[in-house]
Each structure stands twice: as structure tokens, then as C-alpha cells.
Write a structure and sequence with these properties.
binds copper (II) ion; seven-stranded mixed β-sheet; single chain; Glutaredoxin
Amino acid sequence: MRTCEKWFIGGFFLLLAGVVSGQALPVIDVYKNPYCGCCGNWIKHLQATGFSVRVHETSDTDATRRQLGMPATYASCHTAKMTIAGKSYLFEGHVPAGDIQRLLREKPAALGLAVPGMPAGSPGMEVPKGQEQPYETLLILPDGSARVYKRHAPGQSQ
Ligand SMILES: [Cu+2]
């Protein structure tokens, strides 16, 4: 086999692996205000990681958050929902895709993840270097309490 053929076949399988792993990531339903720019940037961040996103526009994100069951204490600009194997998780705010992937692996007994507020430097909230703030991704437990799931240092949004 000539080298170029090997490269071609190798490339094909890499592409196939990419497609398969992309499809393995579940769909995330995102509820956001139509005028929210940083919500749109967070959606792009999810898509770049391989998640499929369905966007639902709402003029009242507080009401949507309440309906979905995310406690208002952890509020941010958008709420998302993902269902895997009959189990649903909620994501509030600018949660890094890497934390969602970890949740998919660990499947904890939890309501979901939240990054309350809109910390500068979180995915979708990109700011010039040096202006990022540290933030935490919280694991929201079924009783509504929270524990730190991941600490994010300034400059590493993932
Ligand atoms: Cu935001």
C-alpha cells in the first residue's frame, strides 16, 4: 500500500471515530432569552465539544428555571436540560462542557450542575486576558443543596 493510501484510510477512520463520538454525546435543550449573546456563545462552546443543542427561546428565564426545577439561588442567564438513559440533568449558566462530560461519565445522583451568575472567563463569557475571575461549577444535589464539583482558576475556562 502506498503511503498516501495509508493516510487516506487512517484519516477516514479518524473521521468516523469523530462522528461516532460526536453522536454519542446527548442532545442538550437550552432555554434562553432571544437577546442573550453570552448564552449563544455558550451554545457554540457546547457544539464545538460535540454536543447537539436545541434552542428554546423564552422571555421569562426565571419562570423557565422554576418550571425546570433549578433553585433560584443558583440563577444565571440560561437553563439547560439533558436526558440520558431516562435520567435528566439540569445545567444552569456557563457550565464548561468538560464538566458536563465528567457528569456523563460519573452519572451522580444530582439535579445537575450550575455556575451561578456570569463569571468573567467562563465559556461564553470570554474576556481579555487578565480579566478572568476564578469560579466554581457546583453540583446541585436532589435536596437543592450544592457542593463544589470543579474549581476553575482564571485563564482556564475548561
Ligand atoms: Cu451569560
